[in-house]
Amino acid sequence: MKEFMKITEIEWKLNNRNFLNLFFSLVFPVMMLLLFGTIYGNEPSEFMGGYGGVDASIAGYICIIIAVSGLMTLPLTLAQYREGKILKRFMATPIKPLDILLSQLLVNTINTFIGMGLLIIVGKIIFDLHYFGNIFEGIIAFIIILLSVFSIGLFIAGVSKNAKMATAISYIIYFPMLFLSGATMPLQMMPQSIINISKLLPLTYGVELFKGVWLGSHLMDYTTELIILIGITIVLTILSIKFFKWE
């Protein structure tokens, strides 16, 4: 346990030195919130289903933070460690390679929570953000989405032969999810062809689930989204274990 806490501390310091990680997980979502919040405000509108623009969009921005940690930071770091023989070297020390994996999951989870907390604080102070749902159900929805996205990241790390390949796969998966899942722009503003494409993206179901729970719906109102996200988590976790190599 002592070794795990020490390596987690080191991983946390390394994470905080990565400008791109911090920018896209902490700064970029807040910029999106400020930009679109300034444009659309947070007064209830018919276009947003009777909710304010910020209230209806905040769940998508939180999903962006989850996607950055799970699809960009996590797989790229693990792929770089494996390519640099770092995981192999740890096999000769009291620190196990599994400790590295678990510490990465913990660090990225903490970073996601910090990003979400910062986003909510800014939204509340500037736009009087509201949460209409059940807190307990909101936490469950968040965890389900987090596990689903992180399982995709672990799968990318598992099948990638090197950091370059992991980067390419992560970008190919991340950016369509960023712009076509409803996380940045509401799907109702997009043409039907884009909406059809969005149904192929896992994050779309995460955004729909979290947005619904945030605005007052219940988890069981989104059984399709739950089944898809939990199914992705189970399948890709199993495949990640099968394909992941420490060296």
UniProtKB/TrEMBL annotation:
<dbReference type="GO" id="GO:0043190">
    <property type="term" value="C:ATP-binding cassette (ABC) transporter complex"/>
</dbReference>
<feature type="transmembrane region" description="Helical">
    <location>
        <begin position="20"/>
        <end position="39"/>
    </location>
</feature>
<feature type="transmembrane region" description="Helical">
    <location>
        <begin position="139"/>
        <end position="159"/>
    </location>
</feature>
<protein>
    <recommendedName>
        <fullName>Transport permease protein</fullName>
    </recommendedName>
</protein>
<keyword id="KW-1133">Transmembrane helix</keyword>
<feature type="transmembrane region" description="Helical">
    <location>
        <begin position="100"/>
        <end position="127"/>
    </location>
</feature>
<dbReference type="InterPro" id="IPR052902">
    <property type="entry name" value="ABC-2_transporter"/>
</dbReference>
<feature type="transmembrane region" description="Helical">
    <location>
        <begin position="171"/>
        <end position="190"/>
    </location>
</feature>
<keyword id="KW-1003">Cell membrane</keyword>
<keyword id="KW-0472">Membrane</keyword>
<dbReference type="Pfam" id="PF01061">
    <property type="entry name" value="ABC2_membrane"/>
</dbReference>
<dbReference type="GO" id="GO:0140359">
    <property type="term" value="F:ABC-type transporter activity"/>
</dbReference>
<feature type="domain" description="ABC transmembrane type-2">
    <location>
        <begin position="20"/>
        <end position="247"/>
    </location>
</feature>
<keyword id="KW-0812">Transmembrane</keyword>
<comment type="similarity">
    <text>Belongs to the ABC-2 integral membrane protein family.</text>
</comment>
<dbReference type="InterPro" id="IPR047817">
    <property type="entry name" value="ABC2_TM_bact-type"/>
</dbReference>
<feature type="transmembrane region" description="Helical">
    <location>
        <begin position="59"/>
        <end position="79"/>
    </location>
</feature>
<dbReference type="InterPro" id="IPR000412">
    <property type="entry name" value="ABC_2_transport"/>
</dbReference>
<feature type="transmembrane region" description="Helical">
    <location>
        <begin position="226"/>
        <end position="244"/>
    </location>
</feature>
<keyword id="KW-0813">Transport</keyword>
<dbReference type="InterPro" id="IPR013525">
    <property type="entry name" value="ABC2_TM"/>
</dbReference>
